[in-house]
Amino acid sequence: MLFRACVLGITMLVMLQVPAPVHAQESDALREIEQLGASLHQIDRAVRVAAREGEKSRAFRRDERVQGWVADIRSDAISIVFVGVDGGVPVGLYRIAMDRSGRVMQALERIDPAPLQGHLAMQYSIGRKAEGVERMQCANEIETLVLPDAEGWRAYVLPRAAFPDVYLLGGSYRVELSSSGDAVTGVQALASECVILQNKPTSGALLFAEDRATLPNELHVYISQQAGKPLYVTTTPNGRTWLIQEGRIHPVTGIPASAG
Known about the structure:
The chain is built from four helices and 16 strands. The protein is an alpha+beta fold. The longest helix is centred in the first third of the chain and has 32 residues, at 24-55.
């Protein structure tokens, strides 16, 4: 594996940020990216909370049937259903519900094993198909998040770093699938090589250089929200700089002088 580090932290945010102009078409694209990044963050946060709650249960910890999970997303809550496989059929084993801020609403409970139905069965199948695409592997552990799309599905295969102060951007992929979930229609790496971003506790914001795209993507929004810090993204192909803060993307003409 080829690793490249992007570890520049910003310790002071004292420089006045000057907004740069955004065209209407570009603005629409940025709003969609923000929404996708926020959805990834909400689902991933719910999964992490569910996993922590599961670790508190001796029965859950010892249950070797658990092989994955699916997310049942509602307007006011996200339910995580932990899944096993019985005779080749995915079945629900445990369930827990959180509100959209990640607070537990319904405690982890063991449920009668029953085959997943409808969009949950589809989600599980799509996740497994996405994990099987050819891709650069930058970590031993991955998480796969599935979102519906206007023309099908999007599955995000995201590597998990071994250290809490490191985010692995390299090895992250967006996999697009048909509405039936049977066909992979596109695979897009969301970062180069096995690039990482270090989140130093003393840094008030993070800085990342995106060397292939001309706009930030949903992974950048997701990482900013995961870190709970602003993220400056420089898209080197067009020399522009973007500030991602509280889930919103703003083009700026400068970054704090303390960067780098």
